Amino acid sequence: MQRKYVTSSNVRSVGWENNTLEVEFNSGAVYQYHNVSQSEYHLVLQGSVGSNIHRLSKVHSYTRIH
């Protein structure tokens, strides 16, 4: 999945494809958040990306892939 770099103190890049949000953190860890709509993906990119992803993790299951 292609990710785009974001300005964030905790997140390096974010991508979305087929209702999966993929997040690379500055630590190098990569997580996939499942059943994320495209509109939710666009909301993640607005404002504080790290805070938005934290909120998303409360309502979507996720898997660490790296």
Describe what you observe in this structure.
This protein has 66 residues and is of the alpha+beta class. Helix content is 24%, strand content 35%. The chain has 2 helices and 5 strands. The chain has helices at residues 38-44, 49-57; strands spanning 4-5, 11-17, 20-25, 30-34, 62-64. Strands 1-2-3-4-5 form a 5-stranded antiparallel β-sheet, covered by helices on one side. The mean pLDDT is 96.
Concise summary:
The protein is an alpha+beta fold.
Output the keywords:
66 residues, alpha+beta, five-stranded antiparallel sheet, 24% helix
Low-pLDDT runs: none
Percent helix, as a range, is: 10-25%
Strand order of the largest sheet: 1-2-3-4-5
Structural class: alpha+beta
Q: What share of the residues does DSSP label as strand, in percent?
A: 25-35%
Largest sheet report? 5 strands, antiparallel
Indicate the mean pLDDT: 96
SSE string, helices as H and strands as E: EEEEHHE
> Helical stretch count?
2
Distance between the termini: 14 Å
- Tell me the number of strands: 5
Shape: globular
Topology, pairings included?
Layout: E1 4-5, E2 11-17, E3 20-25, E4 30-34, H1 38-44, H2 49-57, E5 62-64
